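User: Hey, quick favor. My workstation is busy. Could you predict this chain's structure for me?
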Amino acid sequence: MGCGATSTLMEVDGVNRTKSKRQLIGRGVCLAAGQCILPHKAYALRTDYVETARLTNFSNASQVDFLGVVIYGQNTGQPPDPGGCPVIALDLPQLNEPPMAEVWTSTLPVAYHQVEGIHFAMNDEVLFGSLQLEEHPDTPVDIITYTGYRRLLLQIRALGYPHLLRVWNYFPRINLESDGFERYQRFCVGRHRAFAEGLLDFPRALPAGTAIGTASGPLTIYFLAARKSAMHIENPRQMNAYEYPPVYGPCSPSFARATLKTSFTGGPHLFISGTASVVGHASQHIGEPHCQTRQILHNLTTLTRHTEQLHGFTCGQMDRQGLLKVYIRHPAHLSAIADILKQELPDRTQILYLQGEICRRELLVEVEGILSHPGHDHTLGAAALSVSDPRPAISQHEQPDSLTRA
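Assistant: No problem, here it is.
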């Protein structure tokens, strides 16, 4: 339901949840005053960037059910009367105009649930959830992360959505060093421990992931999980993150390069992890934001083509549009990065530019994306990501020692 839509309480497996009374027929998504998108068919989930100034109209006028809302910037506020759907506020300043929110919806009826500080929205196929973990001076970030992830994994299993598809992680001072390790490295220790203990088929079932440093706020995690399993995909140009050598920290980062879910109502989705200028396991093009951006596009091209080859999923048959988030460390680099993406990507590509800290100090930009079925309006084919690499790639077996900094 729109976050302020009429609702009724229902009992499901002993849990009180809020469920929409609306019918499936005639549902639409209003992106601005007087503008609506009427889906051609039902869909389990959809993501749109919506002007924050239009969120009230969007919420009141939409005839879809809300899974979640993500808003960016220090003065984020909240959509009025959220009605139970998870609302995530992140201190990541948006660098392009107008201010946008990330809105997740479904034409399938959605139920809402809260337990142990985790907010859930779920339909018959997918669960959207979020939690915030306040840090305390006497508790290391790895312990906080472990506790949150353990709670998350136990709850999604209890609710019947045991398969993680995608996880976003945000916390401040991500590159700050303490007692010999950066906070991101400590975060990786806690996440790895929780996954090793609680994720079925670890590490092959690791979801796509992002970890970005915010300007302020708690450790914030939001995620997608499903009733049925998905396919987790690696990139031939990059070493599996969970196999990185110890130079990057006590525990390797626990995520897949992408997750492909083909069985959603409404069509398949490819969730692409935060992708940086990394070949093998080494950072490339230190201090050169334009070259790092082109290296990222090369990595993304390789990933989508690899998906086609492995799974018979033809990204090129999509509608050549994508939904991307671009994290930029220094706002002064926005123009150079945006010019390259504008040149290389289709005009219809929706891009949200955010100021955030990448997990390695030398990395200046990171890109993540969602590719989906033509029945949605944000789709992107592999051909749209095809660019030439600015420099010869370095084999993951021939990494220069000077670039192995965590």
